[in-house]
UniProtKB/TrEMBL annotation:
CDD domains: ThiL (cd02194). It comes from Novispirillum itersonii. Residues 29-141 form the PurM-like N-terminal domain. Residues 155-307 form the PurM-like C-terminal domain. GO terms for biological process: thiamine biosynthetic process; thiamine diphosphate biosynthetic process. Mg(2+) 5 binds at D217. Substrate binds at H54, D266, F322. The gene is thiL. It catalyses: thiamine phosphate + ATP = thiamine diphosphate + ADP. The keyword Nucleotide-binding applies. Mg(2+) 2 binds at D47, D75. This is Thiamine-monophosphate kinase. Belongs to the thiamine-monophosphate kinase family.
Length: 325
């Protein structure tokens, strides 16, 4: 796999990513031994990304590593958890050169530092198949405070973080290697390759949420998941769905569609239910300069999603979102 071999890779490239976590034992032992502060619960999630499925095989290795870290951090944010430590399994295709692996490790190192998320263990193997990376992320919440998908109630505000649709348009942008996407192509491609886990919103507002999940498979489909497990319906006013300047431009130019924005994957924004009484808390949060939180609709008693397009007409997607199977 590499002229360094498995142990050389671990010592040279991955052990430095463990240096801030004493319990990682410098990746020289059989397992990590982590302390859990009294009164906290461990929130655990795992996500795998596969070349050709979750990232483009010729994406920069730095951004592949960062996406791996960030999709998992997004799941921690969705539960209201703070990052604690991560475990990484790399299946590198045979014949991948050391330069690629070094670039992957340097992208990971940047996010280990940015999010205080040490790599406390893992495994490194070679594979005859496509590059596959799996990260298990551990986070902490004060006991009993994890935010679940199932807590939305009729009358709750339906809100999202950041901007919606950049992930789906970004995949199109990332595929247009010829630069034909215009001035916004780089922004959108970056939004696809390097998601922004909304840990600030989790830290600042989780205590006010009734429910939360992160949008990985499209707003419509993921909203459907929250509604189903909460036993409620929802209305969405698409005129209020926050769009980046780039997404607005692509929509106006016919490069992108509402279908892609509402049902495309890879946004990694948070979808949240707040009691109506929290409206002033959301306003204060937005005034404070945190990641913007935008109310786009309401959770309703009963069942069913009712979407209204910007022209005020009832709107139904052709497809509801990304499914693997
Ligand atoms: Mg998720």
């Amino acid at each position: 796999m590499s002229r360094r071999g498995e142990f050389g890779l671990i010592a040279d490239l991955f052990a430095p990513l463990a240096s801030s976590e004493p319990g990682a034992l410098a990746l020289t032992d059989d397992a990590a031994v982590l302390d859990l502060p009294a009164g906290y619960q461990l929130v655990t999630t795992v996500d795998a990304i596969v070349a050709g499925v979750h990232f483009l095989p010729d994406d920069p290795p730095e951004t592949i590593a960062r996406k791996l870290m960030r999709v998992n951090l997004s799941d921690l944010a969705a539960m209201g958890a703070k990052p604690r430590a991560a475990f990484l399994t790399c299946a590198f295709p045979k014949g991948l050169d050391d330069q690629w692996i070094e670039a992957f490790a340097s992208g990971l190192a940047a996010d280990v530092a940015a999010f205080a998320m040490p790599i406390a263990g893992g495994d490194t193997v070679s594979t005859p198949g496509p590059a596959t990376f799996t990260l298990t992320a551990l986070g902490l919440v004060p006991a009993g405070t994890a935010v679940l998908r199932s807590g939305a109630r009729g009358g709750d505000l339906l809100a999202v973080t950041g901007t919606i649709g950049d992930g789906a348009l970004g995949l199109l942008a990332a595929r247009q290697a010829d630069g034909s996407g215009g001035a916004h192509q780089a922004f959108l491609a970056d939004r696809y390759r390097v998601p922004q886990p909304r840990l600030d919103v989790a830290a600042g507002l989780a205590g006010h949420m009734h429910a939360c999940m992160d949008i990985s498979d499209g707003l419509v489909q993921d909203l459907g998941h929250v509604c189903e497990v909460s036993g409620v319906g929802a209305t969405v006013d698409m005129a209020r769905v926050p769009l980046s300047a780039a997404a607005q431009a692509w929509l106006a130019e016919g490069r992108g569609s509402w279908e892609q924005i509402m049902t495309g994957g890879d946004d990694y924004e948070l979808l949240m239910a707040f009691p109506a009484s929290a409206a002033h808390i959301i306003a204060a949060w937005n005034a404070s300069g945190g990641t913007p939180v935008t109310v786009i609709g309401t959770f309703t008693e009963g069942t069913g999603l009712h979407l209204t397009d910007p022209a005020g007409q009832a709107w139904t997607p052709v497809r509801t979102g990304f499914t693997h199977f």
